[in-house]
What we know:
Shape: globular
Number of helices: 1
Order of helices and strands: HEEEE
CATH topology: Nuclear Transport Factor 2, Chain: A
Amino acid sequence: MRRAAEQLQELLGRAPESVSAVKPTDNGWQADVEVLELERVPGTTSVMASYRVSLDEEGELLAYERIRRYTRGQIDPRQ
């Protein structure tokens, strides 16, 4: 996951803050990574994004897509 986070940071120009999900796939791994997209004051209004990344068995990034944007203080209504 560290290597994938480094690769995602290189592509986005922003450091991932956390990994919210990881699961194995037939070809490697899939993970959801949370990234700070726009920092605001107060911090609860900062814009976050969830990216879904696909990794091969060695942890190399194969693909990524942004699946959600939200404010840091927002509670997920799906929970």
